[in-house]
């Protein structure tokens, strides 16, 4: 059993995508990040960066004590290695998948996240900041579009954790002020991944939590007011 600490954000969706594809048994523990659940001591005990998702694998491959993993990219790698799926065994294939996984973790996710922040949540609409992150998101869409030219998936013919990492960050393309029709190969890939039965199931698992209130002003203070002095002290 995988105990999944989750909220229906792009990073949360990455993990349900894998779990649904692999058919692993899992149980969702909602971590309402707007309410400050990520600061609870029992969560911080295994997710010290006070971010979700995180998992606890109660039946690790070595047969030992449960293993906890935080950071979505690390979780995807852990689950791929645990199951032997969605990560090539050969050195060149694995290299390619990890390159694009880290590209998402270090580029697409952070840049699109800042795009969301300054375009949607910031109390003051700063034209320079909005343009900076909209343009950088656009550049990264272009990188992915070029990569997908002539390929079914990011690493080639096979669906991998690189696709699972990138897809949820393209889902909010409208909020990111992008046009999928400007990126035909990315658009084709996006539609193909979205049509996968496991993708449909994964997003359905998040629906009960989407019905809860959107980010409130108090929630914004929790999400965007963290410093070393107050993180983990709620």
UniProtKB/TrEMBL annotation:
Belongs to the GST superfamily. This is GST-like protein. It comes from Labrys monachus. It comes from the Bacteria. The keyword Oxidoreductase applies. Gene3D superfamilies: 1.20.1050.10, Glutaredoxin. The keyword rRNA-binding does not apply. Its EC number is 1.8.4.-. CDD domains: GST_C_YfcG_like, GST_N_Ure2p_like. GO terms for molecular function: oxidoreductase activity. The lineage of its organism: Bacteria, Pseudomonadati, Pseudomonadota, Alphaproteobacteria, Hyphomicrobiales. Residues 1-87 form the GST N-terminal domain. Keywords: Oxidoreductase. Residues 90-215 form the GST C-terminal domain. Pfam families: GST_C (PF00043), GST_N (PF02798).
């Amino acid at each position: 059993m995988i105990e999944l600490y989750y909220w229906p954000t792009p990073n949360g969706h990455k993990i349900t995508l894998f779990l649904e594809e692999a058919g692993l048994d899992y149980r969702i523990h909602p971590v309402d990040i707007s309410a400050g659940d990520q600061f609870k001591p029992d969560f911080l005990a295994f997710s010290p960066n006070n971010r979700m998702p995180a998992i606890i694998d109660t039946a690790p491959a070595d047969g030992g004590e449960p293993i906890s993993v935080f950071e979505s990219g690390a979780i995807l790698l852990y689950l791929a290695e645990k199951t032997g799926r969605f990560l090539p065994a050969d050195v060149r294939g694995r290299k390619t998948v990890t390159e694009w996984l880290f590209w998402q973790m270090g580029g697409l996710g952070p840049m699109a996240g800042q795009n969301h922040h300054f375009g949607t949540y910031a109390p003051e609409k700063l034209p320079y900041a909005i343009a900076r992150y909209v343009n950088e998101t656009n550049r990264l869409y272009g990188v992915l579009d070029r990569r997908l030219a002539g390929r079914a998936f990011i690493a080639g013919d096979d669906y991998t954790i690189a696709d699972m990492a990138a897809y949820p960050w393209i889902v909010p393309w409208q909020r990111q002020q992008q046009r999928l029709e400007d990126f035909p190969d990315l658009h084709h890939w996006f539609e193909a991944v979205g049509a996968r039965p496991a993708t449909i199931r994964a997003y359905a698992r998040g629906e009960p939590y989407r019905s809860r209130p959107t980010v409130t002003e108090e929630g914004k203070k929790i999400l965007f007011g963290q410093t070393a002095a107050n993180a983990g002290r709620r």
